[in-house]
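A reminder before we start the practical. When you read a complex entry, don't treat the lines as separate problems. The point of joint prediction is that each chain is placed relative to the others, so the output describes one connected object in space. Small molecules and nucleic acid strands, if listed, are placed in the same frame. In the example below there are two entries. Take a minute to note the order of the lines before looking further.
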Amino acid sequence: MMLTLLLLPAFIMFGVSFIKKQKAKYLLAFTSFVILLPIVKLFLLPKPYNILGSYLVADKLDTYVLLVSSIVGIGVTLALLTLDKHVKISQKAYRKFYRFFAIFWIGLIFSILSNHMGIYWIGLELATLSTVYMIKTNYTPAAHKEAWNYMIVGAIAISLVLFGIILMYASAKPILGEDAMNFDLLLAHAKDIPSPFLFEMGFALTTIGMFVKMGFFPMNLWLANIERASFYPVAALFSGILESAVLVGFFRFSKIAMAVNYDHLFIFVFVYTLLTIFIVSFLIYRAKDFMRLFSLSGVEHMALIVMFWVSGAPFAALLHFGAHAFLKPALFLSTGVLESNGKYKIAGALRGYKGFKGGVFWFLVSLFLLAIISLPPSPMFFSELYGFGAMIATAKESDHMLAMIAAILFLLILLSIIFYRFVAIYQSMKYEGEIKEKTVYGSELFSLVIFAISLISLLLPQTLAYLHAIS
Amino acid sequence: MIDFLIGLFLASLIVALFTTRLYRLLLWYSLNSFTLGLLALGIGRSIDDNAMIITGIITIVIKAIAIPYVLKNLSQKFHFVRQITPEIKVQYAIMLVPAILVFTFYLSEPIVHMIHTNANYVAVSISSLFLSLLLMMEHKNVAPKIIGFLSMENALFLLGITATDGMPMLVELGIFFDLLMAIVVINLLFHKEELRV
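Here is the predicted structure of the whole assembly.
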């Protein structure tokens, strides 16, 4: 029953996307609100809640990610209402976008709620394939090229994930049989896995596949190029929902890998993420347009989330994850207005907003821009404090305290480069360039307000208590 | 018999790397998938696993017959370039392929010791994965890249049936579903291009 309720809005959206009437787009946006209802109901049920036997199980982590993703989905569909005001899009392409968004959502529900490695992969693959067409809704040669790029690189990444899953499954099959696919059973029997090396090999390959999908080293620019070529809601979906599903998988796989051999996991992931932030910080420094800037910043934050998670700070990771999932789509959706003067014109992008709507838009975008660089009281400020604190605490228990302090100092230098760049861009947006009047539409402003409220709600004591309970 | 089939699987992939005509590439992919299907049938029969036998039959129907047929139709409908010359010259590719094989056999040695049944096949499937990646890299045209992606799926499927004595049926069916979805998306990508022109 619960599964039907969760999938029904996506099926309705798929069906409505065939209606050719202009007003159908309001119905499509409304359908995305309906997605929230079963998720709220899921929140109230005792956890873990078996949705489909042992295949789909909702625990606290799943429900949190699903709620965050559904809010992002609502925000994106609201912004989609005025997409044609900012970019050139045919009604046919618009309806097809929704059709694939429905498939994307179905894949994500399976992926996020799965307690089964195989189902997780199938859901992720379905979501990946559906996004290929969403990129292609922009009928330009650049978008066409990037859609193929995404298809090919995404397929390689997802194949690496499957490759790793097969090896992990092979490592545990002698003791668990076909149940070796279940995350909870694997976690419970992690110490008994007869071939831990085989499991670790599988985990490393799966992790690399996931990191490629998130734009980590050495594939730092592929995602940024794709997001630049496609319409801005696609980038919002990528950063707010698709990457969330990838991260949930990483959380689950890494929990088992931590139980198998924590030191191996920590060194591998920590060095990988540090290297990613090192490269990305300089790429951000050189970014000359909003889409690439936000996209690369997304890679930086994903790397930080992963780093906090493996450093023994799941609370910090989850708080950072929630804040990023709300902030980044909000910024991506703002680009529709911010790029009114042209794609590569940052100077003056925050000038020329008149009236109440313009004032609120200017205020919200400033808030988001300053929050993404972790200025207090942004949730990211607190998550980074907790995260770095946990890194020190983890290092205290090992013999590598000095190495960890050096790593944190190095990380802070890299983050300060990003901070400097964002502040410079903000000043350029606010105080340089010409003043040209820009129009902000009600629906996109409403979506930004939703993101702002969601962001603030992350700091409520109840939310923090819930995140503590997950960790 | 299984050794022969696994040799044929690898051989068909190697030949595909040197192919310069699109239809012949489709033929080699079809043969690659057909041997994979036969392997699943053979291994499934030897370990008495009905799920693997069903998977083998589905592999033959979908991967060896349906997908090459659909791709050939697509190539005719959208006038694909049929001359597909690899970017890597033949003399270099001849050296590169054995190097990949030796490297992957060396790479998979620690894993092979941990898998008790069909251990060498695991090494073959990993080398097939690398060869499929090479197929994707050595061509500029989209069609051979698609075949490379599909061959990669075959290599993973081989790993699944050899390293684990078959994945759960649900996962196998899910992978087939995703593969069909991939073909639909590929079709749409070409279709929109035609509309734009």
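Discuss with your neighbour: The CA atoms of residues 24 and 137 of chain B lie 18 Å apart. What might explain this?
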